[in-house]
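Dear U.,

For the methods section draft, I wanted the exact inputs and outputs in one place so we can describe them consistently. I've listed the two proteins in the order they'll appear in the manuscript figures. Please don't edit the token lines directly; just add comments below if something needs changing.

First protein:
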Amino acid sequence: MKLITAIIREVQLDKVREALIQAEITRITVSRVSGHGQQRIEEMYRGQRIVPDLIPKIKIEIAVNEAFVDITVDAILKSARTNGAGSVGDGKIFITPLEECIRIRTGERGGTAI
């Protein structure tokens, strides 16, 4: 089992969600987060140019069995890129081992609980 965490642009959420549904990945968790990396956005505020420290992003977390890791990553990669080619600030995908998953309602454990 793996936990896939993707940090993407807010405007790409609908595209990514639709791509995941088409790939038969329907159980996701979405959070609004903020941070910064290489992306820089300049804004005008009261006639002065400012660069905000933290940029709003979307964090998607998906627990999957081994067979769905590549399918999930491919769906996110294809749908989260800006203009199909990609640009700075499109985000990142992290894949981490998931030690255990327990369904609270039934007590199921492991891959069947996902």
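Second protein (the one for the lower panel):
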Amino acid sequence: MKPILELKKTNMPYQICLIAGLILFGLSCFLLYRNITFLKTSERATGEVIELKKIHRSTSKPTYKPVFEFVTKEGKTIIHTSLSSSNPPSWKLGEKAIYAYKPDAPDKGKIVTYYGVFGWVVALACVAFPLLIIGGGYFISDWYLQSPIS
């Protein structure tokens, strides 16, 4: 019986797919663990959108970044500008949001939305799974078809 992952030049693209898929899946699992741990151990503050910052682009229509204002449990006011922008705006002035932060670093928090917390986890997993299926499927089918039938 031959090993499942035999190194040959003819199957190099499948090896690359499998290795890249494993790396991306591992990174996705790490980010999932880190984000869940952050959410479990963080404080929460409720705030609202105080401004929609207009971002001018030279090639297209302007986009809008929401600017949030939160007050922590300690009474510190946090102004948080979202990293993403959109047109039309995804937030409205006065709309409420939940902000998760560490008490020792309240400026480095996150807006608690599904994509704000798990966006990269999902994106990496969506790339990793097809690579794992292509690379892993090749080696499993090659091993299965080469093994003697008993």
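Candidate sentences for the figure legend, describing the second protein: The CA atoms of residues 110 and 116 lie 7 Å apart. The first strand starts at residue 43 and ends at 55.

Thanks,
Y.
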